[in-house]
Amino acid sequence: MQLPNPQPLDDIQVLAFDVFGTVVDWHGSIAREMAANYPHVDSHAFAQAWRAGYQPAMRRVMTGELPWTLIDDLHRMILDRILPDFGLAHLAEAERARLNRLWHRLDAWPDVVEGLTRLKRRFVICTLSNGNLNLLTRLSKRAGLPWDCILSAEVFRTYKPDPRTYGGVASTFGVRPEQVMLVAAHHDDLAAARGCGLRSAYIERPWEFGTRQAKDVSPQLGNELHAENFVVLAARLGC
Q1: How far is CA 75 from CA 52, 104, 135, 143, 184, in A?
Q2: Which domains does the chain have, with CATH numbers?
Q3: Is the pTM above the cut of 0.90?
């Protein structure tokens, strides 16, 4: 579905992509690895619990309760807290470190590589993620993601939805904010980007939270584009 578009799209130069949930299947990836290595654990609940700590941990950084902290380190703090709840308090340091790097091994959704490859022909494509540079680089290399540039909250030393992250994309590439389109599967991220003058495209990821918990992917006003996946987005943007 394409929503009414108040502005022409031909002036857009940069597409910036949210990563967790939009580009990669964090829930399915975590659940599959947990089921393979810890079959006695409810892998769905484990994935949900680990991700549920993400926003509260970032808020602690953004309010000054914690100093600037990379997502890898926040993920580890959350992991150490939830392991006892799943009967895994006995895991040694080496195993905890390996498990925390699971976020470096997340699988891309099936449409992503083809869609990004097509979009790259016309646009500069980059990440705009709260993930740190090491995480995003290793994840992207493993999944074969053809970015022109990896931008991270680490570059701007603040997390989305701080306006400095969205404005940072435009300043990095020397374009006006309205020449940047954020592509994301999260309406709050897109609304924050529009508040900073960026354009927005919503991508449906109905199974972001797993097959037990389908997500409402209905269109919302404000997004110029609404597409089922990256391949459809590429077609709608003439790629």
Answers
A1: 11, 11, 11, 20, 21
A2: 14-25+107-236 (3.40.50.1000), 26-104 (1.10.150.240)
A3: yes
